């Protein structure tokens, strides 16, 4: 039995803003959340503010029986882009101009001003389209909660609906790229001060992200902003016994410069030649992907003891199937920046320990020496190689203890059913009563 029970209105409706779900792979874990929360709701409306080209497409992801999809076209036409400059006459824009220097490191430029004004114009267009659509569907009534899966300018549309219809409740999740200014063009995320002041609930996926925004924008009300981790389902716990002289590694990520996987390649070349190393990589990438494959192939020329399986992009279900059916020793992460990686939750759900740098929210997941090991924030290939050799030196009992602790971390903190039931309660909690 689950000890968190939903405490929501008898008639409850949920409107969720997404970027691509249910048509693409950009929000794979929203599927898990909907599976948990939909049975407690009368209606779910999945809304894509930017859906140009989606008309007529079949949904690629799961949708509950009580869910439907609303496609909006909030992208700006050439004429609307010109009209966006009239946003300079809006008080909320002037407020943003006034606070900009206080919470960004860069000064104003034409590009940041265009970012600000186009964000405002898209939010206004979305507001008009969404208000009409919700009214037609009878959703502008008490018992409706509006949730943005990302903290973007479209959250402003929900805030304006909340202002016009005070019985609505507005919440957002806050992940990583929508939290950390440095991850975005010009180091700027528009209207964050306004959004955080206006919403009912802000649910951060990591304590690190919450602390980052608090340091950047000022203290956050603990009654309105809290950490609500994402979650995953239980996986298959394989009876993996360490094989002497064999190291079975997994990396699971999009291949890009910030993932720093070339450091793992270099680290593997430093390990003793008598070791058998089996590396499985899941995920494709941009131009960095073939570069990484070429670098690894060159390393293998002098290290024939290293075998690599390049799995490319796999669906969420295919990833789960591979993890459930493969004997693995460690999930390795070498990233420069992270939020709270769901790949590590998936590993823990199968009792697979993690080796990763102490960056972002990773220390909230990995307890050094208990369920995995933390590297420095800038791990060198020799440091990574030393950590892998340390793991290889563990005896069977020590490995079993770490694997058990990894699974318990999932069971205690990253169980999908528990975490998403709690989030559902948050979605229907108004802070403006």
Query: In terms of structural class, how would the helical and strand content be classed?
Result: alpha/beta
Percent helix range: 25-40%
Over the alpha carbons, how many angstroms does the gyration radius reach?
A: 23 Å
Poorly predicted residue ranges: none
CATH class of the largest domain: Alpha Beta
Number of domains: 2
Mean pLDDT across all amino acids: 91
SSE series: EHEEHHHEHEHEHEEHEHEHEHEHEHHH
CATH architecture of the largest domain: 3-Layer(aba) Sandwich
Strand order of the largest sheet: 3-2-1-4-5-6-7
Q: How many distinct helices?
A: 15
Shape: globular
Question: Could you give a short account of the major beta sheet?
Answer: 7 strands, parallel
What do you see in this structure?
By secondary structure, the protein is an alpha/beta fold. It folds into 2 domains: 13-231 and 416-427, Rossmann fold (3-Layer(aba) Sandwich), CATH 3.40.50; 246-413, 3-Layer(aba) Sandwich (Rossmann fold). Helices cover 39% and strands 15% of the residues. A 7-stranded parallel sheet has the order 3-2-1-4-5-6-7, sandwiched between helices. It has a 6-stranded parallel sheet with strand order 10-9-8-11-12-13, sandwiched between helices. Strand 1, helix 1 (30-37) and strand 2 form a beta-alpha-beta unit. Helix 1 (30-37) crosses helix 15 (416-427). The longest helix is centred in the N-terminal third of the chain and has 27 residues, at 110-136. The model has no long low-confidence stretch (mean pLDDT 91).
